[in-house]
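pipeline/complex-builder :: batch 7 item 3
reading input block
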Amino acid sequence: MFIMTDMCSFWRTIDPGTLRAIGLVCLADAIVGASFGALAVSGGLDPWLPVAMSVLIFGGGAQFAAVGVVLAGGGALAAVAAGLVLNARLLPFGFAVADAAGRSWRTRLPGAHLITDETVAFTMRHRDPRLRRAVFWTCGLALFACWNVAVAVGALAGRIVGDTGAIGLDAAFPAVLLALVLPSLTDRRLRGAALSGAAVAVATTPFLPPGLPVLLALTGLLLPGTGRGGPAEEAR
Amino acid sequence: MPWLAVAALAAGTYLFRVTGPVLGNRVRLADGLQRSLTAAATVLLVALAAVAALTEGTGWAGWARPAGVLAGAALALRRAPFPVVVIAAAATTALLRLCGVP
């Protein structure tokens, strides 16, 4: 209830430009969410699975990675490992937006679940504590609603559509992933690490169990002159 | 993907998420660690995008999907809105497949 009244004043706090940007990201993620539900179901998984994953895990990258491992014939352990390693990034993100999630336990605990690449990116753009809180909760709740509804719709449609490839749904996820990370690739060393890591992952995919190649991409950080110094970066 | 795996992934993910908000006011993550984790995340996300764009199972994904992703990435570089990026990628891939490109 108090969240509801908070939300009303939040809407007036945020400028229209930011609200529009949040709306566009929600729309894009809804398309990707629908593609996730459809791909998982047309791949042979039960519809409840992508839906449960979206509510409980609420992380597109980890969801696609885990389902990708399973659909490629990998084990459950590899799927969990692939998802967890990807989601380790949420640890520093949590510290970066800790103030925006709120001070009381009632807001901190549910707020933590809303931490995603998108909410963090939007929250970091602002300095004012009140505005940061407003942006974090608005973006987080809107994304949570759009993502889960879209995944459920996609999971139901996946049975009807059948051939998700014919409408190009498989290209939606890698495209939105690239759109998300491109802004943080301005640092030359990090770009080198990311490119060599990606090359290692793609090159080893035919030979290794599913899930492992993406983890091997971390070796890109070991190249001389890469990794250290990191991205230019979100922590400002 | 059994329910136990979903539960494990969900629990681990929530643990990563909640640590910052719970400790954030008392503990600060060392700058070096913060940077390393963010760098690792970027590397993993790019690798995931590359594997998802270029491979299917243990083989090559064909030309249509990478071409669509490339079209989306080009638009993203020009700061096109996210929905435009996603729809352009899917539409390019769908059109190429309609024309018989694998």
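note: The longest helix of chain B spans residues 31-54.
queue -> next item
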